[in-house]
Every structure is written in structure tokens, then in C-alpha cells.
Amino acid sequence: MAEDDPYLQQYVTEYEPHQAIISKINGLQDLEQVISGAHGYLSSRGNLLVEHGFQQALEVKHLFNKYGINQIRTYKDWAGLNRVTSVNL
Q1: Rounded CA gap, 50 and 82, in Å?
Q2: Which residues lie below 8 Å from residue 20, measured CB to CB, with a gap of 6+?
């Protein structure tokens, strides 16, 4: 998430490491690093799942597309919010 994200609740920052929830480039820098290197770490039939802020699903999909990864699917959490995006390599 971005540090100024209005959905970031203070209690989350009290229990999670700062780097686990706050990232540069609108909260997407760390996810882009993982996504950009996915082909180098996963087998050709590997799966990658990333957790993200519920309002970031579209941006995460664009990151996967940027690195030539398709077969993208986003899953909702128990509250019905987009929370996890997965791909098949």
C-alpha cells in the first residue's frame, strides 16, 4: 500500500512490519520487483499469488501484463474485496 493510502488503518501498522504493508510507487514497488522476476524463479508451469490492497487489483494486473504474464485471476477476501491476484506461468 502507499503510505498515504486512506484505507491503511493505524492498527495494521502496529502489528505488521512497515515494509510488509508500505511500498513506494503508489504501494506497488515491491510487487513489481516480485512480478518482474517471476519467470526467473518459477518453472514454466508455476503459479504466483500476490496479496495486495483491495483497490490495487487493476494496477497489479497491469504489472503482470507489463512483464508478459497473462492468465491473471483476482480473488476476493471474506469481505468481498479484491485482495489476491494469481497467475499461471
Answers
A1: 11
A2: none
Least confident range of 26-30, 32-36, 53-57, 78-82:
26-30
Question: Do 30 and 38 form a contact (C-beta atoms < 8 A)?
Answer: no
Round to whole Å and give the CA distance between 53 and 68: 22
Q: How far, in whole angstroms, is CA 38 from its chain's centroid?
A: 13
The C-alpha angle with vertex 74 and arms to 49 and 12, in degrees rounded to 5, equals: 70
The per-residue pLDDT for range 11-39, each reduced to its tens digit, is 455 655 555 556 555 668 888 999 999 99
Average pLDDT, the chain: 81
The number of residues in the chain equals 89
CB-side neighbour CA atoms (13 Å) of 48: 25
